[in-house]
Amino acid sequence: MMNLHLFRRVSLIVFAILALAIFVAPRLRAQSMSLDKDAPMTLYKNARIYTNDPGVPWAAAMLVRGEIILAVGDEDEVTALAEKGTKVVDLEGHFVMPGFNDAHVHLGSAGYDALSVRLHGAPSIEELQKRLAAAVASSKGGEWVTGSGWDHTLWPEKKFPTRADLDKVSPKNPVYLTHISGHVAVANSLALKLAGVTAKTPSPAGSEIEHDASGEPDGMLKENAMGLVESKIPPPSPEHRRKGIELALADVAANGVTSLQDNSLVDALGKTAAANAGNDTWDDFRVYRELKKEGKLTVRITEWLPFTAPLERLEAMRKEGGTTDPWLRTGALKFVADGALGSRTAAMLAPYSDDPKTSGLLAMEPEKLRMMAIERDKAGFQLNFHAIGDRANRVALDTFEAVAKANGPRDRRDRVEHAQIVALSDIPRFASLNVIASMQPSHETTDMRWAESRVGPERAKGAYAWNSIQKFGGRLAFGTDYDVEVISPFRGLYACVTRELSDGGPAGGWQPQEKISLADCIRAYTSGSAYAEFMEGKKGELKAGELADFIVLSDDLTQIKPSQYTKTKVLLTIVGGRTVYTASK
Q1: Domains of the chain, with CATH numbers?
Q2: What is the largest CA-CA distance in the chain?
Q3: Residue 397 and residue 383 in contact, taking contact as beta carbons nearer than 8 Å
Q4: pLDDT tens-digit profile of 459-470?
Q5: Which of 262, 178, 266 has the alpha carbon at shortest distance from 225?
Q6: Nearest of 330, 336, 348 to residue 282 by alpha carbon
Q7: Over the stretch 48-67, which tens digit does the pLDDT of each residue have?
Q8: Do the Cβ atoms of 228 and 197 come closer than 8 Å?
């Protein structure tokens, strides 16, 4: 009689052959992917593999052919499937998991910012001026100087900068500096002059041009008003653009991110004033395409399209960008419904607790938004609304409900990006409407210093409500909002399970009822994000038939304290079976 061990081994081999011949290959063909039977095999062994598959959560070895995982399981059993000449990689007992799928990034902006003035972490307006002065000194007279990442909540005075602050160090160069949220910016006097922004310039719909006591623009521009100056900034040269994107991609790979859902086209086209801009707005996407053609693209990219563009153009963009390539394709339509909490431009149902004069800004009248959403949904587009304030979240949910009622049932997977402050009564609606909450846990760790002062203790109960959304049956997809935040997913894991500041506290965490487990957080960053872009079953788990996108870490996340998550190093990043990052020794 066949002993039990041999029976299991033979059963696994038979199952693997049947799975590849009958199940995997047809499914992959349907996704415009195929198992390359001539591609070499690689066996990864001696590993502690966290598969993210609830049915079989752990394994010791993985066999890959080309871009596809052939088998995952016991080392002896998987090794038995390897053909002669298979490359063997000994992972020396390290922790392996699916690569992170960042559900919300601004890759083009990150590339541009990598070559601009970096203002992240500047502790005062004086430090901002110091960094700006250094950039001006290395620029030609009249040349635009741009930068990003300043955060006035870090400054003693907690006030926005003004054109006068910038004029002190840059009287002869136009300057434009974007807030860390990306929803407000400050320009100096020369930049305002070149943009034609005067005391008589009206604020575009859903935005604000701030004015000083004399009635003149003070340099602060909120939401769509930012486009008045942005439209005057010369685009980067092709060489500059590619260099920046390559720097951003290197950052992405080094942090274990194997898939991105990107805002580059939305950032270029999404503002109302720019919705009919020319084909030059495809420049970032073209760089991605060049890199893919050259075999140098190191991450899978799903590119969102701007909701406000005319429907005919959106259909043309979808055709041009494609929807099936697992490396580079177009996806959802993105609409920015409101602003940001830090700048008090997020649309709230009631005034801000620390500034009763304002309830934030809603970018479009709800009725107009509803009509446009119904039209675009009917054309088969997935809808994706940025909504941070509780009013914006309600408008988004109301719109999705109206769309489903108007166009009938289908697998839409509409999404709310951020969902930072949600009225408690609206939380169950994510599940009942099948709306995905695409959130960025690291925002909670960053914002908790001041978020409750903005909205007060009652509304704070619906802040960054991961556990409540999940408890009611809603689906989570996690990301970072790179480069508003750093790309590192490990900061997000820490936020998920502790809800504490980066250096610890408050004890037990802020709004601790909204903590979720490490396993739930990893799922939201991997298979949850894959589901949010209709890629479940293709990536996000390590099992036969899925893409070989995985990372090797210095520490076993399931065995260390949460305080050690952010100290964990990525040793290897593998995308489609190809190593795209190796840590230096």
Answers
A1: 116-230 (3.10.310.70), 337-516 (3.20.20.140)
A2: 95
A3: no
A4: 999 999 999 999
A5: 178
A6: 330
A7: 999 999 999 999 999 999 99
A8: yes
